[in-house]
Automatic annotation (TrEMBL), chain A:
<dbReference type="GO" id="GO:0008137">
    <property type="term" value="F:NADH dehydrogenase (ubiquinone) activity"/>
</dbReference>
<keyword id="KW-1133">Transmembrane helix</keyword>
<dbReference type="GO" id="GO:0048038">
    <property type="term" value="F:quinone binding"/>
</dbReference>
<feature type="transmembrane region" description="Helical">
    <location>
        <begin position="135"/>
        <end position="153"/>
    </location>
</feature>
<keyword id="KW-1003">Cell membrane</keyword>
<dbReference type="InterPro" id="IPR001457">
    <property type="entry name" value="NADH_UbQ/plastoQ_OxRdtase_su6"/>
</dbReference>
<keyword id="KW-0874">Quinone</keyword>
UniProtKB/TrEMBL annotation, chain B:
<feature type="transmembrane region" description="Helical">
    <location>
        <begin position="78"/>
        <end position="95"/>
    </location>
</feature>
<feature type="transmembrane region" description="Helical">
    <location>
        <begin position="306"/>
        <end position="329"/>
    </location>
</feature>
<feature type="transmembrane region" description="Helical">
    <location>
        <begin position="272"/>
        <end position="294"/>
    </location>
</feature>
<feature type="transmembrane region" description="Helical">
    <location>
        <begin position="107"/>
        <end position="125"/>
    </location>
</feature>
<keyword id="KW-0472">Membrane</keyword>
<feature type="transmembrane region" description="Helical">
    <location>
        <begin position="131"/>
        <end position="148"/>
    </location>
</feature>
<feature type="domain" description="NADH-Ubiquinone oxidoreductase (complex I) chain 5 N-terminal">
    <location>
        <begin position="63"/>
        <end position="101"/>
    </location>
</feature>
From TrEMBL, chain C:
<dbReference type="Pfam" id="PF00420">
    <property type="entry name" value="Oxidored_q2"/>
</dbReference>
<dbReference type="InterPro" id="IPR050601">
    <property type="entry name" value="CPA3_antiporter_subunitC"/>
</dbReference>
<comment type="subunit">
    <text>NDH-1 is composed of 14 different subunits. Subunits NuoA, H, J, K, L, M, N constitute the membrane sector of the complex.</text>
</comment>
<keyword id="KW-1133">Transmembrane helix</keyword>
<dbReference type="InterPro" id="IPR039428">
    <property type="entry name" value="NUOK/Mnh_C1-like"/>
</dbReference>
<keyword id="KW-0874">Quinone</keyword>
<feature type="transmembrane region" description="Helical">
    <location>
        <begin position="61"/>
        <end position="83"/>
    </location>
</feature>
Length: 177, 493, 99
């Protein structure tokens, strides 16, 4: 029984619950970053240092920066009022799901058969050799993200109709709730 | 050589920002030329595939010491052709339509990226690679749906994104379980290994996750909730691409590859697909009846027609697969034609509301004619192409002793004809509604694109023997060879 | 170790899904999405570790993390656009399309 691994995973789940139920968005984003750090340690202990460093630098770094800048850009006077009942019912659902999870996973993954080997000499050979089509996909998806953000952030001159629509939508948003 | 299908649109997409600064008209020209080049490339492969062969392309062929591979068989070629055709006409249409959106450089870049992603999806031999290209096309489509930055479009894009990411995370978990048990991600190797190593319950769980995930991308009922919001709000050429190609490539093609090549179409999945297909057929048609928004009605009609394709593929008999593949191609042509027409109507009159449109048929003859052709095709009236594909599916159903489902299919077809004729009457024929006196026909390129698509519907309908022999049959042979290859029975079948 | 990891994969997926189903703030929805993505990462690396092929699974995970970054970037751009259109971050103000 690997105790350290179990402790780390329990921390992971605990931080996830905190990230879901914190009212303050900034604290939720920071628990998400902390989750990434803990996950990086878990990955490192599973013989995956490259994935761990990627997770740490990209998810705990880049994505957290994106979240924090979005939170800063979208400050409102009144925070969105979350309803109360999900937080109270959550432990019940969690325990229920945990039991189902335990039984299912134990039944499904009892033995792991040997299969095709993917052994290569080094990590670089695997990434650039076997998974090279994935790299083309990565380039494409990065371009997609860049152009998507560019397209969605362009400034258009507002026509009079647009201004009326924006006012209507704002009233609808606040008045209903 | 096959790599060009992915690299050409990717390279052009990367060049688009530079190009759009040089001269204003250049993105249009380059985009259209790229699509034409891709279409020519895919047409050139028909000869090589027609006897049911597969082309395997290895990176070693061009001297790179990589182990990457791409594969083209009949099924992939059919989809490659569909993608190239529809994107060429959508590009021609965008020359005029996207004028008032601005930022054509970004638009064409995202469009080309979506095409590159879809091309990569159909050419790949690897399950995870398929997921990567699926996400490439999806990310491009999220940005394209929200391109106008207005409230409705952003709302639709946000809902689409949320639902889509849940689906793809489910697919990822299933892929990781399969990898855990078999150690490979290659389609061919997985097909050999899955029967031996995995317990039936695990196969059932993975299949359920795949059906849910790819079913959401294909907009099958009950995972269709994002489509009626996303397709009407997107700009018209993007609606045509989404409804005509993207849901088929990321949904139906991916699902079929996984279910046929890896699992060999077990009987329980076959049943599930037939049930889901019937539900999509009926529910899509019923809700489409009550719609007042032209494009929303077309979106629900897409859900209904996808039901036909899923039923045909679920059957697994050669005739059923042929009908489904033919209907896939036909639906791409006539649904994109109808969406482009709806966009043309909105461009000319400023509204999509069917109760406000009326009698614009005289003012817009070309649009009216092409919409009529599209209506007849989708309702399955000879000699247009929809008739033959629906007939094939219905005959396949009767042949496989699913007479009840065949009756439902015929009834849905009549329902389709009904609501489309209603739309035609409201929008194009009858008295000219108030405020529409100054409506004129749409600009040249929009009319050209819709006219070409309508001509294609008619030609495919007239020359269907050639089309089925050269294009559909290789795909059917490629798929039929994978059925029952694993020989395991599921759930006491 | 593998079994416990897989149990937590399921738990994390459930927590993320719960966040998606019950939150009203758009940014909270994205946080739920991120938690589900972490469960997928854990699942892949566990699979690689159990088979002894860590290089292969790390390549898959690195590709997946890059994809996840692009999705989050586009999603946040959409959230900012929605904020500009409606003035708040409430997901219930995005209910105009119906039927």
């Amino acid at each position: 029984m690997d105790v350290i691994n179990l402790i780390l995973l329990i921390m992971l789940a605990g931080l996830a619950c905190m990230a879901v139920f914190f009212k303050d968005l900034l604290r939720a984003a920071l628990s998400l970053a902390f989750m990434s750090a803990v996950l990086a340690v878990v990955l490192y202990r599973m013989d995956s240092p490259y994935a761990a460093v990627f997770e740490l630098s990209v998810v705990a770094g880049l994505i957290t920066v994106l979240f924090v800048s979005t939170i800063a850009l979208t400050k409102t006077e009144e925070a969105v009022k979350e309803s109360r009942w999900p937080m109270y019912l959550f432990p019940l659902f969690l325990v229920l799901f945990g039991l189902i999870d335990l039984l299912v996973m134990k039944g499904l993954f009892s033995n792991i058969p040997a299969g095709y080997g993917n052994a290569e000499k080094s990590f670089g050979a695997t990434l650039w050799g076997i998974r090279s089509m994935d790299l083309i996909g990565q380039i494409a998806v990065i371009f997609g993200g860049v152009f998507g953000v560019l397209a969605l952030f362009r400034e258009k001159p507002l026509t009079a109709q647009d201004k009326i629509e924006a006012e209507k939508a704002k009233d609808g948003g606040h008045k209903l709730w | 050589m096959l790599l060009l299908f992915i690299v050409i649109p990717l390279a052009m997409a990367a060049l688009m920002p530079l190009v759009s600064r040089l001269w204003k008209g250049l993105p249009d020209i380059l985009g259209t030329l790229t699509m034409a080049a891709l279409l020519a490339l895919s047409l050139s492969q028909i000869r090589l595939i027609s006897a049911g062969h597969r082309i395997l392309w290895d990176a070693a062929a061009i001297g790179l010491p990589l182990k990457a591979g791409l594969m083209l068989d009949g099924f992939s070629l059919l989809l490659l052709l569909t993608i190239s055709l529809i994107s060429l006409f959508a590009c021609i249409y965008s020359i005029n339509y996207m004028e008032h959106y601005g930022a054509k450089g970004s638009y064409y870049a995202l469009f080309l990226l979506m095409v590159a992603g879809m091309n990569g999806l159909v050419l790949t031999v690897d399950l995870f690679n398929m997921y990567v290209f699926l996400e490439v096309a999806a990310v491009a489509s999220y940005a394209l749906v929200a391109f106008g930055q207005k409230h409705d479009e952003v709302e639709a894009a946000f809902k689409y994104l949320m639902l889509s990411v849940v689906a793809t995370t489910g697919i990822l978990l299933a892929m990781s379980f399969i990898y855990l048990m078999t150690g490979t991600m290659n389609f061919k190797e997985l097909g050999l290994m899955v029967g031996t190593g995995m317990s039936l319950k695990l196969i059932g769980l993975c299949l359920a996750l795949f059906l849910m995930g790819f079913g959401l991308k294909a907009a099958m009922v009950p995972f269709h909730a994002w489509l009626p919001d996303a397709h009407p709000s997107a700009p018209a050429p993007i609606s045509a691409m989404l409804s005509g190609v993207l849901i088929k490539v990321s949904g139906i093609y991916a699902l079929t590859r996984v279910v046929y090549d890896i699992f060999g179409l077990p009987a329980s999945v076959s049943q599930a697909m037939i049930w889901l297909g019937v539900a999509s057929m009926v529910i899509g048609a019923l809700i489409a009846l009550g719609q007042n928004d032209f494009k929303r009605m077309l979106a629900y009609s897409s859900i209904s027609q996808i039901g036909y394709i899923v039923v045909g593929l679920g059957l697994g008999t050669p005739l059923g697969i042929m009908g489904a593949l033919f209907h896939l191609f036909n639906h791409a042509t006539f649904k994109s034609l109808l969406f482009l027409d709806a966009g043309a109507t909105e461009y000319a009159t400023g509204t999509r509301d069917l109760s406000k449109l009326g009698g614009v048929g005289h003012k817009m003859p070309i649009t009216s004619l092409t919409t009529t052709i599209g209506t007849f095709s989708i309702a399955g009236i000879p000699p247009f192409n929809g008739f033959w594909s629906k007939l094939l599916i219905i005959v396949a159903l009767v042949e496989a002793n699913h007479v009840g489902v065949a009756a439902i299919a015929i009834a849905t077809s009549i329902l389709t004809l009904w609501y489309f004729l209603l739309m035609q009457r409201k929008a194009f024929f009858g008295k000219l509604a108030a405020g529409l006196e100054k409506v004129k026909e749409v600009p040249f390129y929009m009319a050209l694109a819709t006219f070409c698509l309508a001509a294609l519907c008619l030609l495919v309908g007239l020359f269907y023997p050639w089309v089925t022999a050269k294009l559909i049959q290789p795909g059917m042979i490629a798929l039929s060879n994978s059925i029952g290859a694993n020989g395991f029975s599921m759930f006491g079948q | 170790m593998v079994m416990i990891n897989l149990i937590f994969v399921g738990l994390l997926f459930f927590i993320g899904l719960y966040c998606l189903l019950t939150s009203r703030n758009m940014i909270k929805l994205l946080i739920g999405l991120e938690i589900m993505a972490k469960s997928a990462v854990l699942s892949f690396i566990t699979a690689g570790y159990a088979r002894g092929e860590t290089f292969f699974s790390q390549s898959l995970v690195i590709t997946f993390i890059v994809i996840e970054v692009s999705i989050v970037a586009v999603a946040l751009a959409l959230v900012i656009n929605a904020y500009k259109n409606t003035g708040n971050l409430d997901v219930r103000s995005l209910t105009r399309l119906k039927g």
